[in-house]
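Support reply, case 0932

Customer input (verbatim):
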Amino acid sequence: MQADARSTEDARDPILIVGAGPTGLVLAIELARRGVPIHLIDQQPAPLPWDRAAVVKSRSLEIFATFGLADDFVRLGTAVRDVNFYKAGSKVASFHTRDVDTPFQFTLGISENVTERLLTRKLEELGGRVERGTSFVRLERGEGSGNDANVRVLVRTSAGERWLTAGWVVGTDGLHSIARDAVGISFDGHDYALHWGVIDAHLDGWPFPGDANAVQFDPFLIAIPIGGDRRRIYFRADPDTTHQVEHIKQWLAELAPGIWLENSDEPQLFHTHCRVAGQFRAGRVLLAGDAAHACSPIQGHGMNTGIQDAFNLGWKLALVAAGHAPESLLDSYDAERRHVAELVGAGGDDAEAMAAKGDPTATETIAAALASEDGRRNAAIGESETGFGYDDSPIIDAVGPQRLSQLGTPVGYRVGDAGSIEGRDGAVRLHELLAHTSHTLFLLLGDADAVAVDAGLSLVRNVTGRYGTHVIAHVVTSNAVACERDAGELLLDRNGAIHARLACGEPCLCLVRPDGHLGMRCVPPSLQAVEAHLARIFRFGP
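Our regenerated output:
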């Protein structure tokens, strides 16, 4: 959806996205799903033939599921349920993700160029495309204020230079972001001294499980299945030698004698960094993905953190660009996602410190951390990326007592899955109820009589009557109740799964944001409280 291909009914300047990697593509999809005009450019004339990212985390798969893409990803990748640590060919520690609270109890080994291909195809289905061979040169702040403000951006192609007018600019153009530099945002942090290397190959004689990552610290090596019979191998590189493949073969032999490297591509060497932008927004310019943060690849968080940046930013920017929300809503993007980037960077620092020089004691450290059930559970949650929350967000509210069960979701955190819930159209799972572009309001009543249900229907319809399609509402009971005819909002939670996930053991209102995070819980239910919360997000409030 280029600037010159907008609907004649939409007079808004498009949102210019600079960089068509996974972060830029997810943001473009999120905006296109909501009918926001976009212009996505990338300086590369074609997708890069090589990449470094090889792992799609469970949380990212949940996001792809909302796009209808999860089945395609799973079909083309390898589901990885175990992470095993080896020393001298023997497994000394492990953890698995089979019990993580998600429909995707695995990470997915899949090459980044496959991820980009699937996301690009989805964007094209929505009417968008990538304008390739187009470089961001510089920008000028436009005139106007509020929703009438804009930004002018000079871009360069093989045909010359031209100016684009954009309502907003989002830099998803990587570590050396020109968009970030154009607005003078700092990129503080440090560089790791040692080089990384990566190579894809078939490993003949591989004696370990095919659906597991293999990690060795001495010498350092990580082997990840990426689909078919190939693995992506990360290793510590020696920049002074031209015989990297021979080093890899030697290190593989130390992992397990008899492994043979076949059909390998050329090793790629790269530097790594731990950096976070000083802010994720400067006026009408925002940053996401590697333009906003860089971390060690050792835990596989980099690309996934960018994907989740885009999912967080997309719904907010769409509301602001359409004039449905004040610009202040975007302040929550920096507050929520920069903290996550700092956590990811710190975790990478800790992992790098253990693996920096092939420290033989690193394996013992990992084994001690994974010796307990809690340690393995925490590692699994970290691997899946389902545990990040927004405790300090300016747009979350916990109203009333918050007595959570073990499965309960704290306000600000991603909602887990639950099912099966019975509705007018049959059984459905919680994540399926959330797979749309609006807020989702749940009034959880537990065991209720018809009077309580009718009152609940009146309450939620009061909200949807004011906010229209921006809020989809459900009244949830644990028992079958006769109530007014054609109550399409009514859901039956016979096994109490959704109540356990969202409620506090008593009637409450829960509002789940479009990105799947719990934005508000109100105990007991209060129409005034939910309207006050929504009025901070939307322009048209009570």
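We compared this against your earlier run and they match. Two observations from our side: The longest strand covers residues 195-204. The two ends are 35 Å apart (CA to CA). Please reopen the case if you see a mismatch on your end.
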